[in-house]
Amino acid sequence: MIRHDIILEDTTLRDGEQAPGVAFSKETKLKILDKLIEAGVGWVEPGIPAMGGEELATLHEMLERKNEVRLIGWNRGIMEDVAATIDMGFDAVCVFQNSRTAISLNRGHLFR
Which family does the entry's similarity section mention (predicted)? Predict the structure, then answer.
């Protein structure tokens, strides 16, 4: 029996690249996202918008699939980064102020 009260969140696309020698190509990132969606993962942390360049282009492409999965933008505790992530249309943002503080906000919390 499948439980519908369990929500899975995956950080492979962001956190996985922090391992030494790991850098996913755009194609690999999109394939990983496909597999996560197929597996029923409800929330995905696909990357860091402030990285810019290829990362930003890939994130924009992933955001086109928002009807299939909820996407969380990871941010440093810098207001400009958070604002840019919100403007991109992520479902939620995760803000790291330091190595011990994490704050996740959904759009409802941000715009009250």
Answer: Belongs to the alpha-IPM synthase/homocitrate synthase family.
Round to whole Å and give the CA distance between 96 and 109.
Answer: 17
Q: What is the pLDDT of residues 66-112, one digit of tens each?
A: 899 999 999 888 889 988 999 999 998 888 766 655 556 655 554 43
Per the listing, tokens 């958070």 go with 82
β-sheet with 9-10: strand ranges across: 9-10, 43-47, 70-76, 92-98, 101-106
44's CB contacts (< 8 A; 6+ apart) are 9, 10, 13, 33, 36, 69, 70, 71, 72
- Tokens standing for residue 47: 């990357």
Domain boundaries, the chain: 9-14+24-110
